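In this section we walk through a basic example: taking a raw amino acid sequence and producing a predicted 3D structure, encoded as discrete structure tokens. The instruction is simple. Fold the sequence below.
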Amino acid sequence: MFTMEDWISLAKSSARLQGDLGKVHRWVRPEEVIIAPAVTLSNGQPRRPQHVCQHLVEAQELCDLLIHILTPYLVERGLHLDYELLRRAVRVHDFGEGVHAPLGRDMLLGQKIDGHDKAEYDYFVAYLADNSPGLIEWQQMMCRAFLLQFCLNGNALLPQEILTDLKSNKRMEALLFNAIERWGYFIYALEQYLCFSSPIFLLDVFGRNTSHYDSLAAELPGFAEEIWTAEVRAWRLNFLSQHGQ
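The resulting token sequence is shown next.
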């Protein structure tokens, strides 16, 4: 049973987490300057800034949408996913980004190493200890959800037994998580192109993620039919031709 002291601990830790995540801006390079309500890029182009709390709202919305769209294809293949695990994973997957609050931005993909992921995991574990003291089973369940994002690529610094179990038994959930995360990149980059006529982010997203979209289309039922469709792929080619790629 939660005591009053436990509720006080939860209130404090939750406030601290929200404060930290609100300080961590995404899509920001070291040379860029954050100027509300937009970020001025090195070439002077604006965009809508996005911190981690905002990203998590976007990710949860996209999670429910993709579950709705793809479930008929999964069921047709006899696949019944653990959507509770998936939704937990999406909700908490970037809670560990709070460790980067002093830096003011998350780590860019090209800069991120296993040690950064380990630091984020440790931050999340410490948060759970403060947020739900004594609820060991709950903490273990949430850590497992957090680790879903790493199970396909691996990380020698993270709990190997959990990663191995997730990779063996929750592979499709991990693929769907990957689809949600990577399609979220496209949605944000598309917004910057439509609102600010800035192609930079879409060029980066297509450069880094097209091969992943192709892999998801081959492995995740419904992804090719509903998301990485012929229409979207044709739009990408037209976009690249317009922007010198």
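Looking at the output, two observations stand out. Strands lie at 33-35, 38-40. The two ends are 59 Å apart (CA to CA). In the next section we compare this with other chains.
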